[in-house]
Amino acid sequence: MLHADGRHRCAWCGTDPLYVDYHDREWGVAVHDDRQLFEMLCLEGAQAGLSWITVLRKRDGYRRAFAEFDPDELARWPQRKLDALMRDPGIVRNRLKIAAVRSNARALLALRDEGRSFAEFIWQFQPQGRRRRPRWLSDIPGKTAASDAMSKALARAGFKFVGSTICYAFMQAVGIIDDHQLKCWRVRRT
Fold first, then answer.
1. Could you give the CA distance from residue 30 to residue 128 in angstroms, rounded to a whole number?
2. What's the predicted TM-score (pTM) here?
3. Using an 8 Å Cβ cutoff, are 161 and 100 in contact?
4. What is the C-alpha separation between 62 and 99, in angstroms, rounded?
5. How do residues 7-36 score in pLDDT, each as one tens digit?
6. Is 185 a catalytic residue?
């Protein structure tokens, strides 16, 4: 999609300035920081059944509500603190999605107790070999064998809201998979 600034961008980002900024600065950029990966996994889970722009617009509210996604703090939260978030208009108020953040923090800490970083755990699912760059939005799958494997491993480790479709969107967002469309200015040219 050709934008007014003369740049081609992936068709999904449209023209909303928040979406364009997210596309240009974050989407598909490799993330190896545990806290950032944790935040993105929780946000992708919150997005389930909604559009990404809905969650993106509430991102600051999520960071405020969930202690900047500090897993050490979130893992200790009592139920009453989660219940109070059901009244917070700055986030998607879904009881299961809210509870999943604490569950995911606890699962992340359990991985760390085993001597594994979350980044190490997540990046093991990066597909190997060269992939064909998507030309059209319809060329991008909703899930893959790699996202299926990630989903199963995360669920076994105790993570919630980690279905294969959520995992694939997460993989795209944090750069494990680069799905920038062929004409997009963000395509890594090698």
1. 15
2. 0.93
3. yes
4. 13
5. 999 999 889 999 999 999 999 999 999 999
6. no
